[in-house]
Design a protein that fits this description.
It is built from nine helices and nine strands. The strands form three sheets. Strands 3-2-1-9 form a four-stranded parallel sheet. Strand 2, helix 2 and strand 3 form a beta-alpha-beta unit. Helix 1 crosses helix 2 and helix 1 runs parallel beside helix 9.
Length: 207
């Protein structure tokens, strides 16, 4: 998984399909519904059923192994964690779900890698900083890739983009429940344009 990850925190289930469709239409192919949203499993199932299979749908803010079975049952295809818990990582892999644990230090990155995670959410990216993230890449194993999350905007993506930084998680700069559909569409288009300027590809071309 790579490119732009749309984080739909607070998504009302009745708006799930419409919101996801807007982002899919502008080029997004990875959508995350955090589990601290209203009825998140209903939203995950609705999006999964409504959108084509080239759009991956998963759950964020997963912090207990018991939640993984529920996500799997709702059609979720990946697990995003706010932290680095080996039991959640291992349970996700056993369920054949891609897992992206949250890490804030090289020690946490190595700990996640030691139990099988190779795609890591660097969170909160704005506080960790682009220069620190690039320094991590000098020591992390070559099969680890990073996805910065937290404080990422269309204007600052280029500062973080480097060799195994393969995507970005986009939260309130992309979506908030108070936004209109036109606002969501415009923000999505801005992020897709910024990604294309960095990589020469649309997000949908990098899956």
């Amino acid at each position: 998984m790579c490119g732009l990850v749309g984080i739909l925190r607070g998504l009302p289930p009745e708006e799930a399909v419409a919101t996801a469709t807007i982002l899919y239409d502008v080029g997004f192919r990875t959508l995350e519904v955090p589990l601290n949203s209203p009825s998140p499993l209903i939203s995950i199932r609705s999006i999964r059923d409504a959108l084509p299979k080239d759009c991956r749908v998963g759950a964020g803010t997963v912090f207990r192994p018991v939640q993984i079975e529920d996500v799997n049952g709702a059609g979720g295809e990946f697990i995003v964690m706010p932290h680095c818990d080996p039991t959640v990582i291992q349970a996700s892999l056993l369920a054949d779900l891609e897992v992206i644990p949250g890490v804030a230090t090289p020690s946490e990155a190595f700990a996640a890698y030691s139990v099988g995670a190779t795609l890591l959410k660097v969170f909160p990216a704005a506080d960790i900083g682009a220069s620190a993230m690039k320094a991590w890449l000098a020591v992390l194993p070559d099969d680890i890739s990073l996805v910065p999350v937290g404080g990422i905007t269309a204007a600052n993506m280029s500062a973080y983009y480097a060799g195994r930084v393969i995507g970005f998680g986009l939260g309130t700069a992309l979506y908030a429940p108070s936004m209109t559909r036109n606002e969501i569409r415009q923000r999505g288009q801005d992020f897709v344009a910024a990604w294309q300027a960095l990589t020469g590809h649309f997000p949908k071309d990098t899956q």
